[in-house]
Amino acid sequence: MKEKKTDKSAGDKAAAFAKNQLLGSTKYVHRRDLLNALLKEDKTYTLEQVDGLIQKFMEGKVK
To answer: Is 60 or 49 the better-scoring residue by pLDDT?
Structure first.
């Protein structure tokens, strides 16, 4: 029998999105203003990174 080869490095890479792609997504439709302030134009983000940035911002203290 043939053994299946699993390439873990290919499966571990999450898709990265530009700021304008994330602003246009339906997942973040209610967070567009926040994302516009938090994200940088020249950087790409995974969905996990964006969720983490939102969570960190929302848990921040009010001055």
So the answer is: 49
